Amino acid sequence: MSGTMRNKVQRKCKMRGYTLKVEALNEILSFLSNYEDAEDEALDLLLDELQHQSLKSSILDKEPVQRVVSLLCEAGSAAEDNLSTSTTSSFSVIDAFLIPKFRYDPIRKMFCEHTGRLPIHGDAPAKAWLYRDRFLLLSQRLSRIPQFSSPSFNTELSEFGSCQISQIQSLVGRTGISWVMGVISQLEDGHFYLEDLTAAVEINLYKITTGYFSENTIVLAQGEMMLDGTFQVQTFGFPPLEDREKSASMFTGLDYFGGGTLPKEDTTMAKLETVLDGYEDVEVVPSLFVLMGNFCSHPFNLSYNSFSSPSTVLPRCALPKYITEELQKHIPNAIFASNPCRIKFYTQEIVFFRQDLLYRMRRSCLIPPSTEETSDPFEHLVATITHQSHLCPLPLSVQPIIWNYDHCLHLYPTPHTIVLGDNSEQKAFKYTDITCFNPGSFSNDSTFVVYRPCNREVELSALDA
Asked: From the record, what ranges are coiled-coil (predicted)?
């Protein structure tokens, strides 16, 4: 490898506080030789991983570098295996902790994929980025809606005037109607604020649109700045949705969902239509059965008597192997997934989430939802999570979330189907072009749902009493 790369490695290591011995330097150069035209990214990844190692000294010898290189090579091999599986199979289950993480860069106006390790226990900046990422995700979506973009010359204004979104810090001293987007925060007891990336302003809350509005909800508000420094809200609601095809077309080539991409021959098999039509009236065994826990309602580990009350933090890992291995012997094709988890079935993207979400959203709601469009609580819930592009947009004090893995709960681009395993009654609702249903409780009232991905048909079912 060239002397230029050797000097670059030494310089970057020195910036991180490391001094390299000759053997360690040669080990790093050997590793980088496998990544032609991507040496910088590979070196950054190696140095990131070194920071998580227990090092005896800042002077690095061959052993710790070799250990990290082995870890990265194993991870790369596993990723290639997963990619190979996902691109050749029509069916894949994506674990929450393997979902790719993308962060929107408002300067370059593009999504950048996170590389490197995501520790379970994040630092303080990780919590701040959790909220920032949610806000930027919806902000970039909103920026493509003509009504809220910067007005051009000779453009007729709406009845409200310009709908261009203003930063909250720019409201100071401004008169007239303004539109802002921000997060509802309670910075003082009993006083609610709207907060964006620039500032916060106190607001008055009114019952206006469909959905549940709790703390941390991101809203679009129209109002006027008062002399006392409060923002008098005239109307507010969720940021408008964006069609999933439009979302996907804006950033082609990025696998947000985590299921890989299907080869063209698997998505364009028109010649099979005649064959498949012959089976239209034949009863066929479903290709997949999904069982949504709780699978540990009773203590499993009799020694510790603790597995009945696992951590409530999201996302949740799959059941450990020592619990499932006996069942796996009898059902070898069984897959024990995380919560939430995602399933890709050909072109269909389906999200499964097991949580008593409706009850908790209603408890955390700051104001009663509007009944103008609907009075159905489940429809309000669907509107909330889809407009927020998040499976569980509750305050972290109500529902803890692993800061570095909040992206696992993002709903962007919106999936084709969302399955909410809720304790509430069985329901199905199609909102815009998103199919959402709650199969109900099979153990309590024997309800279940039959779902046909080919036409996205939901059949609410139950066993006879």
From this structure: none
Each residue's pLDDT tens digit, 54-84: 777 888 888 888 888 887 776 665 545 544 4
Banded pLDDT at 154 (limits 50, 70, 90)? very low
Hey, which bits of 374-446 come out as E strands?
A: 417-421, 427-431, 434-438
* Residue matched to tokens 């609580």: 377
3-state secondary structure 52-88: CCCCCCCEECHHHHHHHHHHHHHHHHHHHHHHHHHHH
* Residue among 395, 394, 390 at smallest CA distance from 410: 390
What domains can you pick out in the chain, each with its CATH number? Answer: 3-88 (1.10.8.60), 259-462 (3.60.21)
Instruction: Supply 242's token pair.
Output: 């964006």
Evaluate if pTM is beyond 0.85.
no
* Rounded to 5°, angle at Cα 124 from 119 and 130: 75
Cα–Cα distance measured from residue 128 to residue 135, given in angstroms and rounded to the nearest whole number: 11
In DSSP notation, 426-458 reads -EEEEETTEEEEE---HHHH-EEEEEETTTTEE
State how far the Cα of 49 lies from the Cα of 56, in Å rounded to an integer: 15
